[in-house]
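S2.1 Query sequence (TIGR00153 family protein)
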Amino acid sequence: MLCSVCGIRSRSGPPPPMISLQKLFGKNDIFFDLLEASAEEALHSVQALEKLISQPAAERKMDELILTRRKDKKITEQINEELCRTFVTELEREDIEALSNVLYKIPKTVEKIAERVIIAGTRLSDVDFSRQLTMMRDATTTVVTIVKELRKKLHLEKVKDYNAKLQHIEGEADKLMLDLLQALYAGERDPIQIIMLKDLYELMEKVYDRCRDAGNVVSHIVLKNS
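Output structure tokens follow.
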């Protein structure tokens, strides 16, 4: 259609859609919320494992641990979806993905430990896992704390301290693993018990490793932004 005043052809039809500034510049808070929620589920999984191991073998159920991992899987999926929808993020996209992937692996590994414990039944009723569980709880609690530091505008010294704690826990876990294996091989347990315990010890070690990895990712993020 020609304008009667200037003779310029005007565009017919509805106006072009407005660009969402929130979408363009990113919904930064949601990534902090989701990463913190994922870290909380990692801690929750260890607490659920402690509860499961404390119960008689016949009463142990996976329900709480399965629910925790499903919740964490949904959180991880939401992080991936938000990364696809958001153009600009306060944290670099690859850092968000790296931290999300490490956090997701913690409850996944803890669930595997619980599965082995249930399969073992009463075969391991004389085994004390309290030291390993305490270290896993300390490690995942520290992971929650260090992930929350990301929202607080990246305090480098605090993050270094928390990461050092995670490194220390992982180092102490390695020493404990060697002591346990030495006692296992030198003892008089039957071969099936030895196989079961070795499998459990290795899975527990992976939990400490994943927590250490989470600390390393956060430290890397903070160092880049300091």
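Confidence is low (pLDDT under 50) at residues 16-26. The radius of gyration is 24 Å.
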